[in-house]
Amino acid sequence: MALEKPCIVLLLIIGRVAAGVQSDKQDAPLSAADARKLKNPVPYTKKSIAQGRGNFARYCTGCHGQDGKATVDVVADATDLTDPSVWRNGTTDGEIFRSIRDGAGASMPAFKSQIRQEEDLWHLVNYIHSLWPESKRPPLQEK
Fold this sequence. Notes:
50% helix; 2 domains; mainly alpha
């Protein structure tokens, strides 16, 4: 019976270490190849777009403007989010996620420390899709 407590303590320590390793792995920058493989786990819905709009207003308008067209004079090299044909870092869900989370070049900082929940990043990806021309947007899902 005296052996049970050390075993439980050891299991708790191993669990915490494993969680820390997983957390570090999630914070590691994604490669371009790994980003292209990512699929958005959040359905493209009106609700998701609305949630993403809130984060966009809070974190993105300073450089990309209220409409996403990057016509503000704050950052000379901000991407026009309404025209995916001019994007340099890819337009797949995973590539957009990577650009937001890990940054993209000197003028696009990483937002993983400000937007901590992965789901919030995916809502932001969905909102950015909503800025595209209708013919290029993913199909809107009911739920």
